[in-house]
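Lab notebook, page 48
Experiment: co-folding of the full assembly
Goal: obtain a model of how the components sit together before planning crosslinking
Operator: M.T.
Materials (sequences as entered):
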Amino acid sequence: MSRRTATAAALLLAASMLSACGDDGGVPTITWYINPDNGGQARLAERCAADAGGTYRVDVQVLPNDASQQREQLVRRLAAKDSSIDVMSLDPPFVAEFANAGFLRPFDQADATALTDGVLRGPLQTASWKDQLVAAPFWANTQLLWYRKSVAEAAGVDPASPAFTWDEMIRTAAGQNKVVGVQANRYEGYMVWINALVTSAGGEIISDVEAGKDATPTIDSEAGDKAAAIVGGLARSPAVPPAMSTMGEEEARSAFQSDAGAFMVNWPYVYNAAKESVAAGGITQQTFDDIAWARFPRVDAGLPSKPPLGGINLAVSAFTTHAEQTLDLVRCATSLPNNVEYMLDAGNPAARGAAYDDPRVREAYPMADVIRQSINDAGPRPITPYYNDVSTSVQITWHPATDVTAPATPDESAAFMSDVLQGKRLL
Amino acid sequence: MALTDVRVAPPEPEPAAEITDRARHERRLGLILSAPAFVVMVFVTAYPLVYAVVLSLYNYRLTDPAGREFVGLGNYATVLTDPVWWSDFGTTLIITVVSVAVELVLGFAFAFVMYRVIRGRSWVRTGILIPYGIVTVVSAYIWQFAFQLDSGFVNQWFGLGDFNFFGERWSALFVIILSEIWKTTPFISLLLLAGLVQVPEEMQEAARVDGATAWQRLWRVTLPNMKAAIMVALLFRTLDAWRIFDNPFIMTRGANDTETLSFLAYRQNVTLVNLGAGSAVSVLLFLTVVVIAFIFVKGFRTDLSQVRGDR
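Observation: model returned without errors.
Model output:
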């Protein structure tokens, strides 16, 4: 290549790079950082851009797989006031931290009303910080109790009844020589389980969160003790699943699908995964037909359970230079029809209740009503700017499950959490 | 290290106190020539260093600007009394001592090979240097894939069945250290080769004439004359190994007590955005490096001017 051609090529390259991030023809490009999915969000972006009649284009950037790495990347960019992020798909536990840091653009009253209209109660709680809507609920997730009909029949119990508490479930499984699948590896999924137990017992892990690092850990309470009794109790009972201390969602599923499977708490994806497993010859059709579901079990027979809550909220960056078009995209992506489309396309449950009345959704999800009810009554993980510290403190002090006892573990957990928040201990 | 009990020829007497005009001129020229580099270094590194020291006096989360408060030396007290710091300190110490010790022996072997090889000299040198040319992150992945349960071949080769190398502290450290040794032995052998070349051939011949065995020649002639080069190589590698980050980061993510001090600084600063404690860890890491360098330069009398190879 002669020098002249090289120069020309370099100029061309520079020009094309410039036009990629500039506005050519006056049409702004909105950059949407998404969590990895099956391509559903990218298709949604295409649709919304087309519906907007070409007033904006969307460039979709995929974040890492792991939620904490997603957060790391976004925090790094937003802390540097990176204006190349317009909108992001955010894990609900991180909303408070981002909003508190001034990374998110609050929605005004009119938008807030439209974006939260008909949204189920669970995701609604995770979308605000200090009484301002800072994220738009997009889709939500929850855990159900999955059980084997044959085991429930043999033991003569009804897992859907309020009397079927965690204690009852562990006793039943032990009596049948079966196991209970949970998530108890030292990772975020363990925090999800512990939080669900504590909130179902009527407590919360930490309170007075608006005080930031001076918030009060309340895991050392009666509710925390009940949760510890269940976690440690399962780990020391005959119903303990194999390798409980390294068990994540997938390990729980394979234990549940094995001959020893009886009960499991897990996200709805396991249903389709089991279906695929039949097709792949992993389990028999008979085993698949034996699978049933109910709401997350109660801790206390007199208190409705608060199932776990996951999902994704859409948040607009405070440093966006295309606020108007970005808001258009958020409105479009979180609309009821698109909630339905995304649920059918990517298999992620909608944040808006009315989506569950759609006949196509009801056909694809036989458990649609339970999912809807669970998401509505869910107990979110602590909404605090220090979520990372709170979660990691709990994971460290409650692991391994075999060593969890009440009241020692919750007490230790609260003391450690307090020290970490105050900067007296390192994580 | 048996090197310290080797008798070393006393250093040449210092030149007389009066410096000639020419020497003074040369010294000034040297200062002028190195000034730009020095200024740039100060300019580039001083600000972040000072800023890190300032930050380390606060309890400050990047995502909670309102919660920022001055705590003086509180962060240092927290870090130095925390089991996490000491556990990471221990891990870093183990990795450093083991890898540098093994590398010194291996590096010597390679240096001798490179020095003595007659045929295919350039091929041998290139072959030995290849690992050093590979990016550390890539080499970490290479070793991880080799030892991992799903993709690895090591278990098959040695009939270890389903042994999970990264599931336990010591086996994980073993792989981390192995990768570190593989990657950086060429570096130490290069420095040692530079020292080896400096040993006068006449001395070797004189020793041979006196009837010294090869072993005696190594211990009485070669090593004492290489002491400065050895110390420099050790210093550079120790400082390098002390800051190890890539291997544990890629292979274990710090699980099972395999987190090192650099990794701790990264986690506090980047993951937890805990800039106060994170900066304190960074400053302490910097101080440990200074201490190591001080011990080498003052304690073992490492002469850094030897690197120039002009004596």
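Interpretation: Residues 18-23 of chain A have pLDDT under 50 and may be disordered.
Next step: discuss with group before ordering constructs.
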